[in-house]
Amino acid sequence: MRKDIVIWSFIFLSFGFLYYLMYRNLNKNISTIAKEVNSLSQKNELLKNAWFETLLSAGYDINTNLSLINDTSSVLLKNIVPEKTLIVRLSYTACRPCLERELRNVHKLEEKRIPIIIIASYPNKRSLDILLKQYNISSRAYLMYPNQKMFPFDGDVSQLYMFITDHTLTINSFFIPVQMVDDVSDTYFRYIESLFLSKRENSNFPSK
Alpha carbon of 135 to those of 60, 103, 157, 195, 206: distances in Å? Predict the structure, then answer.
């Protein structure tokens, strides 16, 4: 009887140890797969970014009749960008960590007095203003009309992107932030800062 107990105890311990090894390996595999999926997702965003950058920076123009919602009225985008301006396009459906990171970067540019316009898809202006206030954003902000597009394939782009334009409404320096890749965003905003400040120093770029 004692011998049977020892044998069965050994069998249970063996099964328990095997289960532990299988569970540990399964967790490792899941973690590895998750990292690979995340890496592929980031690479996909970077490729998409490069594709749109190439397409849009080739001189693509924004919808010239793009109308935006101000606090009490409508305005045409072409009438509010007489000089080169960074346009920040955002939406309440955008990746929250990405949104928070880019708004912090936008605030840093504001401190350099770089002209910025926020164009957003939000339920109402009040909810947008609350968000911007959280990050001390003071730039002009407008809402997009529902179903309106900035350019024909606007719906194919993430609802968080930015670019430079002026009264001609030609798109330049188009950028789509990549989730969990802070270095890419930091590099873009440093580029924008240097671009505006260098032009300002040459007196060819009026300050805000």
Answer: 31, 6, 24, 24, 26
Residues 47-89: tens digit of each pLDDT: 555 545 544 555 567 888 888 998 778 999 989 998 899 999 9
- pTM (global) more than 0.85: no
Question: Could you report the per-residue pLDDT of 9-42, keeping only the tens digit for each?
Answer: 545 445 454 554 455 554 444 444 444 434 445 5
Task: Using alpha carbons, select from 40, 60, 22 the residue that is nearest to residue 153.
Answer: 60
Sheet of 85-91, strand order = 74-76, 67-69, 140-144, 116-121, 85-91, 161-165, 172-175
Nearest residue to 110 (alpha-carbon basis) of 39, 171, 193: 193
Distance CA 176, CA 161 (A): 5
- Bridge partner list, 170: 61
